[in-house]
Amino acid sequence: MYFIANWKMYGDLKSLNSLNKVIKFTNTNKRKKIKLIYCPPYTLLQAFYKKIKKTRIFLGAQNCHYEISSGPFTGSISPQMLKRIGSSYVIIGHSENRSEGETDSQINKKIKSCIESGLKVIFCIGESSLQRGKKLTQKVLKKQILKGLLKVRFSNNILLAYEPIWSIGTGNVPKNYELNKNINFIKQILKNKHKMKNPKVLYGGSVNPKNVKNLASIEGIDGFLVGGASQNAKNFIDIVKKTII
Ligand code: 13P
Question: By Cβ atoms counted within 10 A, which residue in 1, 136, 214, 225 is the most buried?
């Protein structure tokens, strides 16, 4: 099971102290099949890496530019820059970036550059409440996957994160049958169109220590992408514990 902490635009150097508890937890649960990945803001990546490099926690970034190495792109960070400072993962296509104008074609270019740089991609997809209301969810998901992964090779370096936009930060989560149906649908596309043998699909959207046990019981879910609840070490550890114990 994957547990990915997306800190979004939160956190400063002091927040790194909260990692101590999480490191201790991973050290005492060595035999459990869990993978913890932290995606702090860019400003904390280097400090995070120093702290976690000898632990069982992995580092990820929250986005990057599609230019693989460097170039005249003010304010941007390239996949190679992320790789060089110790990131193993990067979130691409988060709805909070899509809503600011990030297109499927940019997402596709970013995914290709990240994979070429040796980063693993956490590729986010998800429908809006309006699309869900119009029963367009699967059509939207399929389009996002096909466009995002167009001509992408080595797709085994990609984790899909299904994050319905209406569930992010709202406290609302899909019903079990709905989530199960959509996760299976995503896996089928990944198997049929992208020849992934064992695709991994995570769920994200208002995951917390109270609802995670039920969510984890849904067949097909390979982990969670956690926003708000991941900023508190106790909550994040509780999410892991409730899933695996
Ligand atoms: P919340 O867990 O705060 O709903 O955020 C989910 C998310 O966007 C993770 O990427």
Answer: 225
